[in-house]
Amino acid sequence: MALIDTQGGGVPREMRELLRLAGESVARDELADALLRLAQARPEVAQAYYLAWQTAAGTYAELGSARRLPPGAGDPAGASDAELLAALAARRELDVATLRALPCWLAGRLRRAGIRDGVALALELAPGEPGLLLLVLAEGVAPGLAAWLGELLAALLGLARQQLRPAPLLQADDAPGLLLDAEGGVLDLNRAAHRLQQDCAANSTAALLPVNHRQLVQACRGQQRAVGPVAAEVGGRSLLWQFVPVDGGRVLARGRDASEQLRGEREAARARRLYRVITENTTDLISRHTPDGRFLDASPASWTLLGYWPEQLRGLRVRELLHPGDLGQMRQAREQLERLGYHTMSYRLRHRDGRYLWFETAARAIRETYTGTVVEIVSVSRDITARVQGEEARRRLAEVIEATTDLVLFIDRGGNLTYLNQSARRTLGLAEGAAAPSLAALLEPAELARLLGAGLACAEQHGVWNSDMRLHAPDGTASLPVSLVLLAHAGADGGRYFSLVARDMTERELRESQLRRHQDELAHTARLVTLGELASGIAHEINQPLAAVVNYAGASQRYLRSVGQDPQAVERVAQGLERITAHANHAAEVIRRLRAFLRKGQRRMQALDAAAVAREAVRLCAWEAAQAQVAIDEDLPDNLPPVYADRVLLEQVLLNLLRNAIEANREAHPGTPSRIRLTAGLEDGGQRLCIGVEDQGPGVGEAELEHIFTPFYTSKAEGLGLGLSMSRSIVEGFGGELGASRRAEGLRLTCSLPLAGRGEGDAGQRERQE
Q1: pLDDT for position 438
Q2: Looking at the domain assignment, is residue 170 inside a domain?
Q3: In this structure, is residue 171 part of a structural domain?
Q4: Residue 315 CB neighbour total at 10 angstroms
Q5: Torsions phi, psi of 254, nearest 5?
Q6: Which end of the chain is least crowded, N or C, by CB within 10 Å?
Q7: Facing residues of 237 across strands?
């Protein structure tokens, strides 16, 4: 190397140009052209290429203005020269034949260019920037000469870099330092930068710099001032770089590892953002106050809770919003804060619209470090109006439960009593403080099973279940009838509990018993009235068989006198006696039906064939229907299930409905024939039996339809208005319903009754209670 004279004197022009350009820190393309000109000046070299390693692409790419190699085969996006980079790092030189055998992108490019002889040499134009010099040799030249030429060029570049004036204190600086050329290429680096590159496992020294370091170098040189600090993320570290212009158009990049600092700043910024998000979005009011209670600041929740924006609260005293009844509590709060440093209280604040809301506030005092004086108060306030109102409602409800005369009992899913109010304890004879008895001691086994079975299931599904039962005192001394309501409630833990509200129905039983007796009296009176109205029809039914009896008796007497002359007279007398017997029995049956209809006494509830009862009612009013030219069409199936009712009372109801229909037809069709339709069938999914009477009368209006079952309401000139009212009371006593609906012509009255298998239990219970 001593033979190389950098001042001239026998040194080739191309070599002097390379040394000059390297000393002036020119762009890498210009330096690459000078290197290629020097290499091609040798007669042994047919063609030369310089390719720099592209870290981002993972391939080698040509520098300078020399001719380019053709692209390789395949998808450029999947190109890689990593195998070649590793091979050159290990061996420093490869012949072209070996290179073409490697699985890399450049090997394909050489194959397509038809290059078979030559050598690839590892050569860096700038420290830390890998590259290779590809020399295509002339025919007959040994590869060893190319290797020697590569070593010479590398030595020249190293000598040129040594002639550069190093940046001040670059090597003595403990901070990583890089000397950059005008294009941002690395000219030199200190030991700290070298250690940093190793610690970050960077492929090149330039990888330590920000991705836009070339633009930063140009800005630094153009403005002749320091630029930075600028962050770069390398190998999980955060580096801050400062770019400083130095002599010769170069730039000194000084860096430092700021990972911990930036991480702390990012965490602090994240914490500040999180605090701001929480403060701005929390539903609680966060506020700061002076020791005398003035607002210093407040979170935006102040608008939602109080109707004031934070700016409107600043400087306002809390006592100006405080309820007059809570002023004393605020004075006590200041004393607690001064003494303990924290305090929690509940009080009322006035909303901007004038109403008062309940708040719960947790306040903490901020003290001066040296004197301990309270300089600020920080508060977190929550609207608890709903909670206070709920607690007040529960307190009032508890007072009502204790004061009510109804029996209130709480039970769990297993049927265990957990609470009895005062009325329940008095009624059941339990002393104050005595343990609650078991539910089995208060109810009959069948009723307890019904309550815990169907009752709990219905209450859980629909929220409520009710029934009539009898409660027994635990000592067995007394029992009382109650109307029981079972309610389901959701507990705070998500579980279920149930309450029983029982009302003493002893007085109601007495009133119902008296009412039934009164209804029986009214029904009997109504039957007498009905009998009077049907007297002519009854007389006709009795006179017909009696007249027939008289006629057949007279004829039989005449035949007896002519027995001697007429041999057939005895047979005719016998026929007459048979017919006399039949008509007498018919008259007796009419009398029997009338006596049964007029019978007075207690109800006899039994399973009845509704079709048979309906036919009997038709027979009772048949004569009246015939007189009014009204035909009764019966649609009564014979296979209907039985109903549970009193036969006489049900017959009276149907007779009332039929006679009302006859009267309506007579009014609408005087002197002309008309029809009534009597039907029976199941309804409500086969749960009830419905008996309907449809007439062809004038009908009623919507207003009249609401009052036809009202006592003493009638449209007849001579009517009392008690027939339909009494009929409804009778049907409801059977557990059924009596209703009316308008038709296009006339009115339809419907008697709906429970079937014997479903209504018998409740009706029987009412009969026993009577």
Answers
A1: 82
A2: no
A3: no
A4: 10
A5: -110, 135
A6: N
A7: 234
The pLDDT, as a whole number, for residue 524 is 62
Report the domain count for the chain: 6
> Which residue reads 């000109």 in tokens?
37
364 and 477, same domain (yes or no): no
105: left (phi over 0), alpha (psi -120 to 50) or beta: alpha
- Angstrom distance (rounded) from CA 101 to CA 192: 39
Q: Which of 513, 502, 512 is nearest to 470 (CA)?
A: 502
Residue 172 within any structural domain of the chain: no
Q: Biggest alpha carbon distance in the chain?
A: 194
Residues 755 and 627 in one domain: yes
Q: Are residues 559 and 622 in the same domain?
A: no
CB atoms within 10 A of CB 375: 13
Tens-digit pLDDT profile for residues 184-200: 888 778 878 888 888 88
Look up the pTM and report it.
0.37
Ranges in the chain, pLDDT < 50? 1-9, 164-168, 717, 719, 759-770
Looking at residue 31, the DSSP 8-state letter turns out to be H
720 & 692 share domain: yes
pLDDT at 355: 92
Q: Is 313 exposed, middle or buried (0-12, 13-18, 19+ CB in 10 A)?
A: buried
What pLDDT is stored for residue 11 in this prediction? Answer: 54
In this structure, the answer to whether residues 484 and 530 fall within a common structural domain is no
* 737 DSSP 8-state letter: E
Same domain, 183 and 321: no
CATH code, domain with 327: 3.30.450.20
Q: Summarize pLDDT for 415-430 with one digit per residue, the tens.
A: 788 888 888 888 887 8
Task: Answer yes or no: do 611 and 751 share one domain.
Answer: yes
Task: Report the Cα 271 to chain-centroid distance in Å.
Answer: 32
> Which pLDDT value is given to residue 380?
93
Pairing mode, if any, of strands 285-289 and 295-298?
A: antiparallel
Tell me how far apart the alpha carbons of residues 621 and 216 are, in angstroms, rounded to a whole number: 118
* Angle in degrees, 0-180, between the axes of helices 506-533 and 535-561, rounded to the nearest 10: 50
| List of residues 6+ apart from 343 with CB closer than 8 A | 333, 336, 337, 362, 363
Contact (CB, 8 A) for 333 and 363 = yes
Entry field: residues in the chain: 770
Among 230, 264, 298, give the residue marking a domain's end. Answer: 264
Closest CA to 365 of 284, 293, 276, 305: 293
Domain assignment of residue 303, given as a range: 282-389
Are residues 29 and 135 both part of a single domain? yes
Residue among 272, 481, 468, 285 nearest 384 (CA): 285
CA distance 132 to 84: 10
